[in-house]
Amino acid sequence: MTFHNLEKHSRNTLFRFIFGAVPFFVVFTILFLSFLHFSSTAWATDPQPVINEAMVNPDTTSLDGWKNEKWVEIYNPSLLAKDISSWCLHNASDPMNSYEGKLIATGTTILAKGFLALKKSVTGFDPSYAGGVIRLYSAYVNDYSLGFKQIRCVASSLVHELSYSNYGHAGKSVGLSTNGGSTVVEFDIPTPGESNEPDSVSPTAALIFEGTGPSYPRFKVAFSEDVVKSEAENPANYFLENWPGEGGSGDLIGDATVSYDATTFTATVSFISAGWYLSAEQEWGVQNVHDIAGNMLSPNPTSGTSTPMQNPTVTINFPLTGNYGPSTWASSVSGTSYDPAVGSGVTKVEVKIGFGSYITASGTSSWSYSFTPSVDGDYTIYAKATDKAGNAGEQSVSFTWDGKNPFDPTTISSPSHSVSTWSADNTVDVSWSGADGTGSPVAGYSILWDKVSDTIPDDSVDTTSASDTSSALADGSSYYFHLRTKDIAGNWSGGANFGPFFVDKTAPLVPTLDFPSADATINDTTPTLKWFSSSDTGSGIKGYEVYLNDAKVSGGSLLGVLEFTVTGTLAEGDYSWYIAAFDNVGLSTKSAFRSFTIDLVIPSSIIILPKNTVSDSTVYINSWDGIVAGTASDNTEDGGLSKVEISIQKDSNKYFWNGTTWISSASEILLLPSTLNGYINWSYSLTNPTADETYILKSHATDLAGNSESTYKLTVVYDKTIPQVALAIDPASPDGDNSWYVTKPKVTLTASDANFEKIEYQIDSQTGTWLLYSSAVTIKEGTHKFYYRVWDKADNVSETGLKNVKVDLTRPGDVGDLRAEAGDEEVTLEWDASLSEDTDHYTIYKSEDKNFIPNPETELAEVSEGTRSYDDTKVDNDTKYYYYIIAFDTSGNTSDAKGVSVTLSVESPETETLPTLPITPGTVEGAQTTESGGMETGGQAVGSTVGGESQGEVKGEEVSEEVQQEAGETGAGGILGVIDRFWWLLLFFIPFSIALWYRKKV
Asked: Is-above-0.85 flag for pTM?
């Protein structure tokens, strides 16, 4: 059987595996056996608590706090603390059938190897004095069968039991003879919460001294356990071993009282003798005291000191270990002594020399003993200090006595300097050897540096080394070194001298640069650099070095010269240079830095006024105030220009302007224009330049490096003459009627000016874009105004000319539906109007020749555009006539000819429509009007402009607007306009016209 239902309540994979795949009884068996194994092992290896002792018949003689109190003591033999919370005490053999079980309080723990006594008043457990068994269980159950809670111990959880017989020994306890043992005995002295085993350990004592002085007339003794009170309070068991300065020792009978506190195991010894108190370094003791078990104090006696016993300190201040002579000896041995603050105090100091006897010195804390050695050699002095407690401290000093003076060094030299030679090192190194201390070694030297040759140093050691370095010496030429030798006994030599030394630590004065000047611009690629001489107050100037762009370029040092020419060729660019002046000890001083620029770039200038262009060019102007201005530039940021010069020359006579007048000169006369920014911009004013003259202007720029440009040249043509232009048109006169051209005319423009620049024209506008004239202009169909003008190179412009041109290239439409009616010696022609709006009239042609071509000889009649019929009475009966009608517009263009033939006969007249006869333009001429044409020239220009912006006032001839208007009204447009406005009047004429036609037919 498997517990599949467990899978619904657990997501644990392990449980699903165990309970879903393994039979339950197998799992339970494994877990149960493992629990038994673990339990048996744990209980077997870790001892469990036992009932160690119990009080079942108490009385009033029991220990304080336990009188008339039953109790049970539990002992924990384990090395681990045990938590016995809610364990159960019972005295029945079948605890599950008895409700006498009592629980141990929650949180109860017994320490390892510890004892726990549980009072009846606390637990409620009441063991019988008549005998029985006290049992300890580790588990219990609550029983409510009687209606209230009862405790029943679980029999299977029995931990330990203690059996005892009936006894009536009140105040005695029953328990195990040894802690955790098996033998039950009776104890005369109960030990609740303590060991049951006998005490064989001796007590110990510690003497406690809280301080010294009158404020401390007592001391204490702390025992390790409870001791017999009568012994602890007996003054005979306490004693004083020594009392420094006061003498005596012995017990404290009659000198002190003693009180004992059994709870702290402490006895307090209080002095009752007048003037007694604890002093430093006193030794007190205690003896012959037993503990409750009868064990004697160990060690017996036990003693201690009021303060630690310490030897006093003695110090020999003079002499010290070393060497002495007559000049260093102080005539007596001296020193100090000291006993610590907790000591009893120094009573005497004694001194002995070598193996002699101690002799008492004068004083204690500061002491002295008079002694002076008389023979050279080694000595040892001893000093001893003794305090009131008899403690002694000792010190000794060994020294050597020497009464002979040492010798001076045999050799003194300088590794850094030579005598009487200049040096830039102002610290002189000296060394010496051969100094002899004779009787004792050399102790040191007294040294001195000054400017006197034979000074003797003082009697103070400045160095123990055989070398020295002077302090930083000021510039000078008379420094000496002086030396005296001292031996360790304090004896001095006579003295030695060494020098003189010359010191020059000051560099030469700062040299001053001469050429090139600061920030100069030059065009020399091998410049000569120059400077002024420097000076030096010490060793003197030796020479100079030249540095260009921080690199030395002078090679070796330059001696006795104040200039240097750079070798090689320098490239263009910026350079900085300086020189260094150096003196005879090698000290040098740099001059200030200077910069210069090598500039090989030729500057340039441009003349921008009176007009800007390029060099060697010619400009044309029509206005000039005489200002000649321009710009100049160099390759440097600030211009780098030194000057700009100009010349002005007339081309007509080659005269030059000298600033005030024109003169003849074989060479160019240069003028200096004015400028405010270093000739970057410059200008010059020529007085009253003459118009219609050519001037040659030249400019020359020179930069700060001396580079000069090639000449900038500008030829100025000062032209104020207005140019002229002539117009020709082909055909010269209109080839149509009413000043109309019926072919495309061509306009040709011709200018007359020495400085002619361009001809421009516009058609039908003066405000649009002017077109550049280059060849004859063909005029398109329409009515046009042709505007034209001419410019010269000086921007003089002619007046604007005007030519009115009318061009009509469109033929009028043919007449419509030409009809003929023959009468008696009369032919009536009718037709519909031409559809062209500009039809002017109709011309009727007549001939008896079928093949005739309309021409002036065959013209019959000319009728107005509004006519629609014509009666020809110049006919004969029985004759056939041919008629053509052609429409003419106002410009003389013709339509094709519409034809009809008529045969006059009284009996049977005939009419026949003829095919339309094409008419070649120009083959049929009508009456023409002419306009005088040909060459037209523009009039005087009212104004002239620069740049072609102004158009001037038009002064040419043009057809009046009235004439044009009349011409328009006589054309088809005028008739159609009338019809368009009054067409309704025709309604009145329609009935009248029908009646008239009918009457004619009849």
From this structure: no
